[in-house]
Structures are given as structure tokens and as C-alpha cells.
Amino acid sequence: MSGFRDRARTALADPLLQKALRNVPRGFIAKRAKAKAALPEFEQLREEASALKAFTLDNLDTFLATFVERAQTSGAKVHFASNTEEANRIVIDILKKAGVHLVAKGKSMISEETELNTALQRAGMEMVETDLGEYIIQLRDEKPSHIVAPAIHLSRREIEPAFRQAHTELPSDRQLVEKEDFVAEARSILREKFRTADAGITGANLLIAETGSTVLVTNEGNGDLSSTLPRIHVVLASIEKVVPTLEDATTILRLLARSATGQEITSYTSFFTGPRRPGDVDGPEEMHIVLLDNGRSEILAGPFSDILKCIRCGACLNHCPVFGAVGGHAYGGVYPGPMGEVLAPALHGIGKVSDIVDACTMCGRCAEVCPMGIPLPSLIRRWRMEAFRQAQVSPVQRLGLKVWAWLARHPHLYALAMRIAMPLLKFALRWKELLRRIPGLSAWMAERELPPPQGRTFTAMWKAARRKRP
Amino acid sequence: MSHAPHKGETVALFVTCLVDAMRPSVGFAAVRLLEHAGFCVEVPEGQTCCGQPAFNAGDEEDARDVARRMLDIFAPFDAVVAPSGSCAGMVRRHYPELFAGTPDEERAKALATKTFELCEFLHRHDASPLLRKWEGGPVAWHDSCSSRRELNIHEAPRALLRRIPGLELVELSDPEACCGFGGLFSVKLPEISTRMATDKAQDVRNSGATTLVGPDMGCLMNIAGRMSRLGMNIRVLHVAELLAGMTGSGIGENAA
Amino acid sequence: MTDGKDILARIRAARAGDPEAASRLLAEHPHGTIPAMARPADPAAALALFREKAQAAGATLAEVRSRQDVPDAVAEFLQRHGLPRELRVGRIDPAMPWETADLKVVVGAAEAADRTGFAEAFRGIAETGTLMLVSGPDTPTSINFLPENHVVLLRVRDIVGCYEEAWNALRADFGTSVMPRAVNWITGPSRTADIEQTLVMGAHGPKRLHILLLREGEETGG
Q1: Tell me: the pLDDT tens digits for C82-115?
Q2: How far is C116 from chain A (nearest CA, A)?
Q3: What number of other Cβ atoms are within 10 A of residue A201's Cβ?
Q4: Beta pairing class for C182-186 and B169-170
Q5: So what's the ipTM on this one?
Q6: For domain A39-294, is the CATH number 3.40.50.10420?
Q7: How many cross-chain Cβ pairs, A to C, lie less than 8 Å apart?
Q8: pTM given for the model
Q9: How many Å lie between the alpha carbon of A458 and the closest alpha carbon of chain B?
């Protein structure tokens, strides 16, 4: 299995990917900055959202139980799943019982986490992703590379063959040049799917305890079609998505789109409460809500619980220089970027993903833009501590740190070592090939010069100057 | 940050390990600037490193052991000044966290409140640059991430630089972007680090600047190293050197 | 499979919490900071803000003076965009004489062949130019999403400043903690930026959103 560094190298060497990634700053970063600047209360809302989510997590049992009770009152069926296998089994059971053949699916990170698509396929069901980005990814048999913009790593040059290969019912000489061409084609193809789907599966951005509602935030409207037209609607959500009241949801919604896409609000924010009511002429006959734990109740008890405040806006990804350089696939999991560096080890164990917590320069830009005030670099650093404790760090690095720390605690030896090493280094830089064989220096010097030291150390020079000038 | 000594009082210089080893001229520049501002400067003996490399690598125990020495060394002083946003940020923002729940917690908090980055300290005391005239072309300022985000320093270095007659200060297009140094990051993931350094180098070149200054040796060595590999002829100096008029050879230029 | 008891027990073990404070919060549902811009000084300011924001989101607006005028306004919209004079509606309102404008209306849930849907908004939220629609026997949700063109009637008096006011209006009409099956906040037409980060309108939902503002005082129905 390749590690983060190998995947990152591949990503850096992929010119199409690099071109696509250059769109990130032009798009998300500038738009978010503009949206934030236009809302003077942004910082205040951010503090309130963080505090309300902290209170929610402190009382998650009460709010979750209330959510379940009120959702059931509205006629929804609520299912709990301890882990991903259970969640998939519950969903497949629901669909089988209802005789479902075709599923129209909205974007759901939880379904990525449970690998629901594979499970549905195995169960012999046809499932079509309806979010345009997810649809493109599905056609290419890929994973999303961004939690908000799944196909951000692709350009039209890569999407065109996927469309031509999949949509054989359309004339082969049709035009697929402009972005509008692609959107129109996907729209026409997916309309038919919405019309004939027996079930819709969507995620939920929030769950509201007060009303038992699930909240869905989209721009395309695909989630609303998936949850309105088919006779079964299944909502997949993790347990920490709950907020207490409509007002609390509102506070978070004021931050979500601004942080994600720089919109004040997305085109569609929908609140679903139960199945079709008596007299209704549309809406699903059955509404199911599957609540996934998958380790979150344990995260809640530990030092990484702040990550449960995350609302999946993607701002930390968009502002992360490492994500911007290599894209989401390099992280090798469902959740990339800073939030992924904290969440993935919490879900899978640091032993399995210890290399992704190195993918951070501690620049702090993620924490600055996080609408929920999650101290991401601190949490990433904490995972590094965990990795170090569990001996997930390479012996060379460990030894290096120990030697350095020992020296740093012995100032006379340290000063002596530096006094000898620096002139040597300065001298040795004339033979760069030699230095490139030293671990650490080799990595640095592959694509950069190592600026030569001036020669003497400050400590030595200062001492000498003091002696002259009593 | 309540504690701020008055002119005539003594401040301790925290040299920092990169300045000590790689570029002592920055340390001397800092001393001159502080003395020019009316302070007595002491350089307490036995300084090594603040412990940040271990801290960011997850080696909390060694970080704490190294940091504890800092608590001892700088205890007697009213203020500690470092020519580095990264090291000052480590002390101010992370020492209280590193020593939380230990017997040294209070001492760590005390050191945190009296530790300052050089530009921030000079600006606060209305110090003026020693350099009387600049004829070296447009100067770009690089905010180090720790200076900008951990210490919230934005205006201080810009204000100081603008006080130098003849100096045209230019802003980078994305001043918030990390240069890719990140301490051990640049060694562990050098390809990504290089890509980020390239972006920064290009941003500097596109700004029209002929000189780049910044508050942190780590960033500056990274950017200078990448620039010289890319064949860009842009001088890189630590801000202390420019302010003190010690503008001899830039970082990465052969001093010999 | 689990009934959730074990999960809830783990959660309870993780955090002590304050059940009383939690219940109080649910009952009192206090609001957070409402941005100053979401608190227009008077109805005229609210209307102006609603217009500005809705337009910024890509919606078009027109005014009608009474329900009787709605059919003509809809016909004009259809004509402008070269659309067939057909309309999907949730109910027949006798105050809106569709036949006078030579419009063919079909009542009920939307179908794939429908080109234009007509709906009435529960509230308009000036803060972001957002329409709030609720589902019910006369207001099927599918009309809001399936047809390519969406025409929505909004009474000017139903424009509120912020989301919170809309929630309180909903509570007043439906009862505390009771929600219609679907509440839809709609802000401009459907869009996507999934291809190369460039915005394209009309992804799956309506390509056009046209809002008819019904002036207060001059209307009779309700």
C-alpha cells in the first residue's frame, strides 16, 4: 500500500490535476473572503456556533433522543447503526423490503464513509449519483476528492470521454465543449432516473432535535428531487449532526454556505419532517433516517471531540496549502485536508493513517477560516503526539529528535557542536553531491539550495565580543 | 501581553537556533535595533532552542524538557525578544499549553506574556530603523504564518519598513499563503514543500520586488533556497538586517 | 442492528451534560445573533432588500396588484421565454382566472413533462432574498423542483427580515415544534459549479425562478 508521500508525488506530477487545483484559490478562497467581509457579524456568529455545538455535544444524549422521538412522531422510521456494515445492512434491508430496483442518490459523505455504493452494487441494486460532481466521479469509478466539490480534481478534458462512454443513447457527434453542454446533458440523463427511481438516498447537513427534521443544503436541487419523487426516502446521517433548535440550525446555516462556496446561502435549503401526510399528492410514502455512530460516541469522550463540531463546509480544505498542492485523493481516505487529518485517525486509528498527520505545515490558515472554531492544527499536532507515543514514527526521526533534544539540554556541548558543524557545513556546501547523501539534507537539497551558514555562530561571536568589551 | 518594559530597561534577546547557527548577523542586527530604541540588551547564556521541532513532531516530552530550560534562562528578565515569529509564537501560544497541569504552568504563562517578536516589540515602542536610506528597489514583505496567525502581527513590520526613506513596500498577491517550510515538514514532504516554495517565489517575482524580507529564518531559507534553484535574482534578508542597515549579502548568496 | 440504546449509553458516559438546561433550550429556542442587515427598518426597506438579494441570486421579479392580475403576469413570463402556455399548479384559486390569459393549468404534483410550475410562498426572507415554501395538499413540493421554470407568488406583506421571523410565523401557523413535511428555502434558480469551479445555472432544479410580488391591500384572497 502506498503512503501519503507517494500519492502526493503522483499528484504533483499530474499536469491536469495541477491545472484543476489552480482553480481552488480563484474560486473558493476569494468568494469566502468576500462573503465574510460582507457580514460584519461573521466572527460573532462563529463564536456562537462553536459554543452552541459544544453545548450540543455536552448534551448529545438529550438532543439525539429528542430528535428520534420527534422524527418518529412525524412518521419517520429511525434506525441506529453502530458501524458502517450495520448502516449498509439497514439501508439494503429497507430497500429490499420495499422492492426497490433503482436508487437516486444525493451527495452524502456518510455513504462514502460506509462505502454504501459498493454494498448496494453487491446487493444487486442500481444506484445513480445525482449530484453532478458525484455523478462524474461515479462514471469514472473514482472517489470524491473534496467533501463539497467531489470532482474538483477534474477538467472537461477528462469528463468528456466519461460522458461519451456512458451516454451511448445520445448522438455521437453531439457537442460537448462548453460547461453548459455538460450540465445540460447530465440534467437530461438524470431526469429520467429521478422519474423512475423507487428510492432516494440523501445525506443531512443537520438534524434538528426540536422538530425531528433533517436539513439538506444543495445548489443543484438534486437532493430535493431524490427526496421528493421516489416512494422511499432514506436519510443517512451521523449522530453528531444534531442541533437543538431551528434557531440553532439558522445560526449554523448563516456560516455554512459563506464558508463553503462564498454564497450567502445556497439555492436550496430544505427541512424534511416525516413522510407524505394525509392529503398530500407527493413526497415519499416512507421516510427512514439511519443514524451512524461509527466510533463517534467514543471520539466524544476523548481529546479529539472538537472535530465533531465540523459542519463539512470544506473551508479548511480550500485554504490548506497542502491540499491545494496535491488534492484530496492523496490523503487516501474519505475525508481529506485538515478536517480529514483529524477525523480519519479518530475513525480508523492513528496506526493506519499516521502519515497523513504529517501533511501539515502548521500554518494555521485552516483554523482561521473554520466557521466552527475547531483548533485543527492543535488537533493534528495532538495526533502526531499520539503517533509518537504509539511508536508510529520512523526510528530515524525518533533517534534524530532524541539526539537533538539531548544536545539542546546541554548548552555547552550544543554550542560546541554548532561551532564545529557550521563552518564544516559552509565548507562542505562546495560539494553538494556529498551533502545530498545525508538524510534530511538530501530531501531539502533536491529542489532547493541550502543557503550556506555565515560560518561562526552567534553564541561564539557574542562571547568573543564580550571578552573584548568588558 | 500586559507586560512591556520601558526604555532604558533591560530586555533579553532570545537568539533562536537558526539565527545562532546559520545567520548570526540577524542576532547582531536585533541587538543594534533594540539598543537604538533605548533598551539594554542581554543575551543570557545557555540558550539553545525553544523546543518547537520536537513539539510539532509530536515528541511532547522532549519538547517540554528543552522548553523548561527556557523558563529558567529567561526568568529574571522583564521582556524577551526573538527575531522570529515562529519561536516567539511557540513560547507565547504553546508553552502554556505544553506545561498545562505541570508544576511549571505558571512560569510558562509568565514567560509567554513577556515574550515578543522583534518587529512587534520595536513597533510597540515606536522604535525607528537604523537604515537611513534605501536604494535597493522595491521590497516585498513575507508574513510568516506564525507571525501573522499565532501572534496576529500584521501592521508592525510594514510600519517599520515604511519609515525607511526611499523604501517602496510591495504586497504579495497572497500574503496569507504558507511558503512550505513548516520545520520538519520541508524534510519529510520535500516535494510538496517545494511546490509551495515555488508558488511563493513566483508571487515574489510577480510583485516586482528585488528584495524579500521576512521575520523568520526558516521561511527565508526555504524561499531563498528555492529562488536560487529557480535562478531568480532576488535578494532575501531578515527584516532585522534591513532595519539595521546590515544589508551585505543576502540569504543564500555566497558570503565569501 | 441496534435500537440505539448502546449508542446513547456511550454518549451519556462520555459527557455528563445538563438535561435540564438542554430541555430549557428546546422549549425556549432562543435565537443567536441576527445580522443587522437582516433587520430592515420598515416594510419598504424589507421589500427593497428582498428584491436586491433575490436578483443577486439570479431570480427575476415582477409586481402584481391583485390575484386577478397573476395570470397575465405569468403569461407574460411564458411569452418572454418562448414557453408553452401551460402551467402546473397546486390548487385552483378562483381569484386567479387562468382561462382569461389563455393558460392551460394542470393541478397536482409535478410531472416530468411540465415546463413551468406555479407556487405560492409562505414567506419571503429579505436577508438573502429567500422564498420559504411549505408542503401540503395544495402545495406539492415537486412543483418547486421538477419543472424548468418556477413562478412563485409572494405577498409583499409576507416578506420578513430574517429567517428567525419566518420560523416564528411557521410556529404560529403550524404549532410549536410542528413542521410541515417539507419546508423549502429557495434562493435563486438551481446551479452547479461542479465543472471546473465555474457557475452554470439550471443543474437539476429550475433554470429560471420568477417571483411575482403581490402588493398588499389590493388583494382579496388569502
Answers
A1: 999 999 999 999 999 999 999 999 999 999 999 9
A2: 15
A3: 33
A4: unpaired
A5: 0.96
A6: yes
A7: 287
A8: 0.95
A9: 4
